[in-house]
């Protein structure tokens, strides 16, 4: 298996000209990576999406992992690669700081996709042109302009989605929207002319899987599920958001009446919506919840039923004939699910409502920083958890996209998730998953350091099961691929993450971060028409992973190895 090392975009503070900074940084060898700074004080109008390139990273090629273990030669090579990446991170971080870029995607060791404010593009382009012409060894920069003007693209996509969801057929209006998409560099033909409905009808109260919904509608839908499925569903509030004080709900699905003692079953915790701009993640967790309910209904009531009682579904969300019934597997017979689809309602709703905030990542805590600090607000919730808080990949800078907060678990959203995880019975046999987007990965600990966990073989095996099943379930001839590996190696180093907290502090041995795939134009802009496609892929991967965990534990379950056994301590600092 090949583990790709993907750059962690970082920031540094040096007060000279941008070109001098780049020239000086080419000799840096031991730069500790920090996340990028972005104050979001610029309008999205005239903003550009740019892919910034480095030259080929020969030190990072072909670093194999045999059975989850790096050999000595490969480890030394990974150290060389890590040093090179640190140098490049220092380089790119200077651009991020000076031009107030927002890193949308760390693509691979050679490039990253960034959002450039319109008023910064001219100077950045001049600098990148100069660097490209210099071709300075392995550190020179080039670029590709992906989207010349992001704002009309966002407006066009949103209005196109409104046309679809409202079934509006006005030709002039459709032509206007298509022109807006073209102005943003997007081919309108990449979007279907009508929503793709794989069996789900519009639900009561306006909830469906054809569009993205505000957190209130998701909460209302969970309440309906509980009312309609009192034998298997429970709903409780585990906390509230920092700014608006919206409730954060946990939906529990399991055979509660049959198993009064919940300690006799295995527990699965999933969170979505941690990062506001990743709209597909709460939708995918909700899709999983609907599927679990429908699967149980089919097996216990003789036929598949949706909310309207008139559709037959497969276990992955598709219509199915009666002769395929023997293939259905009911996870609720083996697991109790704790689902928190929306753990950042303030940030998510703001991103959903305002095109200017479409790429907002953090929560909306206005008191997270001192007053009048460049209008920066909010904390990256996935850098705020109380395990190894403040280590690699988390920033102390208020305006950073990866701002870690004032202290470990300083945010009410973080506390809510931590409490939900710690309250699960029998955590030594539990599974914990944080759902993100859009890298197409199954990630195991650790994020805060470049080291594999002790039970990495079990985790890799489970991750590969997810990846294979997800790829096989990809619909319409598309095949969504998932890379499997340790978070720090495969994506980038990051501390204060939910997955590290669940593994290290809560001592849950089977812990993952799942990065859903991107679709449509990318850049977190998964079209609503793909919600059910990606939901189908996610459900198939989850069920395969859970089946495999049962098989590995001999059906009855056994204690996982759990890796390092750290005490749950919010003040563990940055030590390794």
CATH architectural type of the largest domain: 3-Layer(aba) Sandwich
N-to-C span: 27 Å
Overall structural domain count: 3
Q: In the CATH scheme, what's the topology name of the largest domain?
A: Aminopeptidase
Name of the CATH homologous superfamily of the largest domain: Zn peptidases
Structural class: alpha/beta
Biggest pleated-sheet summary: 7 strands, mixed
What's the Cα radius of gyration? 23 Å
Could you tell me the mean pLDDT?
Answer: 74
Number of helices: 13
What is the β-strand count? 11
Report the β-strand fraction as a percent range.
Answer: 5-15%
Helix content percent band: 25-40%
Shape: globular
Unreliable residue stretches = 1-17, 25-42, 64-76, 163-173, 191-206, 303-326, 555-576
Q: How would you sum up this structure, described in words?
A:
InterPro entries: Peptidase_M14. It holds the Pfam family Peptidase_M14. Keywords: Carboxypeptidase, Hydrolase, Metal-binding, Metalloprotease, Protease, Signal, Zinc. By secondary structure, the protein is an alpha/beta fold. It folds into 3 domains: 132 residues, no CATH class; 33 residues; 303 residues, Aminopeptidase (3-Layer(aba) Sandwich). 32% of the residues lie in helices and 14% in strands. It contains 13 helices and 11 strands. The strands form 2 sheets. Strands 5, 6, 7, 8, 9, 10 and 11 form a 7-stranded mixed beta sheet that branches. A 4-stranded antiparallel beta sheet has the order 2-3-1-4, with helices on one face. Helix 7 links the parallel strand 7 and strand 8. Helix 1 runs antiparallel to helix 2. The N terminus and C terminus are likely disordered.
